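Repro case for the chain-ordering regression, as requested:
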Amino acid sequence: MNKDELIIAGKPFKSRLLVGTGKYRDFKETRSAIDQSGSQIVTVAIRRTNIGQNENEQSLIDFLPTNEFTYLPNTAGCYSADDAIRTLHLARELLDGHNLVKLEVLGDPKTLYPNVVETLKAATVLIKDGFDVMVYTSDDPIIAKQLEDIGCCAIMPLASLIGSGMGILNPWNLEILIDTLSVPVIVDAGVGTASDAAIAMELGCDGVLMNTAIATAKDPIMMASAMKKAVEAGREAFLAGRMAKKLYSGSPSSPVSGLIK
Amino acid sequence: MYSNMKITINGNIKEFKHESMTADELVDELKLTGKRFAIERNGEIMPKSLFKQFTINDGDSLEIVGAVGGG
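-- result from build under test --
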């Protein structure tokens, strides 16, 4: 198990849990939860800076130094390829040339369902511009394959809607993705609790990305720890290879011979 | 006698007592020195390495962004 690493765009990571940094009470809680999760990759959003307000106000980066974590700037809130491309170019400038990004182009503010047509357009341009693109998408295996073919370095299908906590609604589609793709498949969105993360990993996903499930738990720090264990347990169970399911045949674990008469 | 310049920063109009200034001077005026941010001027990114050379002019529109919590 020592060498079981997640490789993204050629870079190895020990942790298969990727976490968002939104929705926490404060930066201190953000940091504590992320420490407990053991995550090495953290997503951030790019937004307008407060101008001329509190000069000494602390920022997220003060609590999550860029030399300790791999940043994954996202395009949350972008509804077109152009907006997403623009946002990630700003992110690259902000993070001094950092190329690893999470692309998501949304299609609808109510469901936050991805617009895969715009996503494909944006991914094509970003890859040409030298970005390593981890891409949020639907669990459509054809779109996922196209995103891999144009050069995305990780495919990140939803398990259910962003922030819904509904868990894994279509394990069969996820299995098709896992079987068809050679780049890492990371479940992004929909995980609600530890068992969801474990199931994703047992299916053979290479990682899980989550935010709301940890940040909005009653005790986010304890939930972060639970998610770490769930991802590790699910991964080990996948690697260990589960027993075959036998619908109608019981098989006792204890010897059938030597029973007292 | 200097005339004031007006520039739009993150959607708000701000007035400065200059006719023009470099990006470096603007960063200083906005007390952003030492912070992590990126600037887009009229839709084009201004690389940090060129802040001394880039001039901000009256009527320019800037977006100044940073990293915030997100999923």
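Ordering looks correct now. Chain A is about 35% helix and 15% strand.
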